[in-house]
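Morning!

As promised:
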Amino acid sequence: MKFELTILGSSSALPTSQRNLTAHVLNVYERFFLIDCGEGTQIQLRRNRIRFGKINHIFISHLHGDHIYGLFGLLSSFNLLDRTNDLHIYAHKPLKNGIDYIRKNFEGHLNYNIRFHPINPEEKELIYEDKRLEVYSFPLRHKIATSGFLFVEKPREPNIKKSYVQKYNISVKNIQHIKSGGDYKSPDGWLIPHAEITEPPYRQRSYAFCSDTGYYEAIVPVINNVDLLYHEATFQEEHREEAEKTLHSTARQAASIARQARAKKLIIGHFSARYKEIDNLLSEARAIFEDTIPAEDGLVYDIKPYRTERPDDY
Amino acid sequence: MKFELTILGSSSALPTSQRNLTAHVLNVYERFFLIDCGEGTQIQLRRNRIRFGKINHIFISHLHGDHIYGLFGLLSSFNLLDRTNDLHIYAHKPLKNGIDYIRKNFEGHLNYNIRFHPINPEEKELIYEDKRLEVYSFPLRHKIATSGFLFVEKPREPNIKKSYVQKYNISVKNIQHIKSGGDYKSPDGWLIPHAEITEPPYRQRSYAFCSDTGYYEAIVPVINNVDLLYHEATFQEEHREEAEKTLHSTARQAASIARQARAKKLIIGHFSARYKEIDNLLSEARAIFEDTIPAEDGLVYDIKPYRTERPDDY
């Protein structure tokens, strides 16, 4: 029942000796979704012991080099590792030609298929779905077409309390009836109400990836109530003018989005290499949104299953 | 007077958590020459504290992804770091179009010029020269056009012994005369022979880079007497058949080339990721050529200046 994020790279366009270029991996029930693929991603996957064969879906936010240059080598390595499974890539359309060009000129034949899914950069859209998960892309505000991604767990059925299952030896048919919202009806004809015999289901967990983007309130309703928000914070407030010019965000702006969206937790990252320490960025963000943590290469954040409603005044 | 090699990546096509993809840096009197540029090279440059601004010349052996995919990001990073100096790239011709394609589709304008120097894959040729150094490319034997590189220090003038300079207060004109091979002639008209007043000059140091290549004796005369030979050793003897099929070398073959070429020191590298430990490859090589060391990421090998002739029976 994992819903766990691993950060492989936390720098912005210039990598440092401590921070690689952008790449995240979301583990949803042991399916691994790769989000962006900056140079060095395959090496970071190795370091973090994430098996290449577990990755079947890659989501690319935008086509700047620091988010894609790890892709060419990763595709080759998949091949060298005898991959045969289809690989699905969700990205803006020009990447397809880029991949084709590189493959044709600098590589041999691939023994697996790449399924390319072009992203609509203008609208929120459902781009992936399986029995556990939905993934949406939505527009961000950057120099070129850029999309954020929202990963949302599907609603889960309520659990029947173990004590009742044992006590009443409930039939499979009855279990299905109860899980879909019904009451328990015994062979003798009496009822136990649904609310008594079940625990509330686990909540739908969610993760939103927002990078690269200038401050953009239009995303607030899209990511409303998200469990974990990753929002870029390339700059500190002091360099806000530069943030606006380059369509990046300050740490304060990232926190403001998290607050408005009532996120549960905020991770800031994509730090400019000019900041040797990111203490100031973190303080700035925490002043607005306390539950902020800084991205570090190798950071693992596990969103544990939870049943309770959030308090209204969260 | 440095002539110092730093190895940034020592794996073959698949990187591991310990070994990055191929890239070497040769520091010749504080000019830094980058040889190959596998994915992650810019991060390895950072880790090894090599300043990007010191690199003006990049030599690419061949156009397989594991030797070039670090180039696209490095070019961007140069730009972000406000480079204005020309960057010289020596590579087989199709790389130029590749760079142009990537720049056009995924990057903005560069604020510096790239000077592209196409390598002739068929012949040994002098491809670079300055007052300290000559660089030659020469054909290797691989699946696509591949060139090795030979870096040779230029001949140095003999040094006049300090004691004589002080004792006779030799004029600048006379110093030039002696350094170019003449005897010392005093104002009074008597002579001190050249051989007495000078120390023999430092020898021309040299480094040869041979990767990727199958076993290829044709390179022996080209790299004859080289101080330091890097020769790929992708496989151990046990997998010789695979080496021949893929046009790579075994450790034993690399050592055989070093021995025939009377190299002073051999570094083997480009190890297949299948070998968790490379002890066997090293033993194999040392059985043929004792002065063998294994490439490791971050290995620095300094070829110190030396004056003596090598013994004939070396």
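Chain B touches chain A through 34 residues (CB under 8 Å).

Hope this helps with the figure draft.
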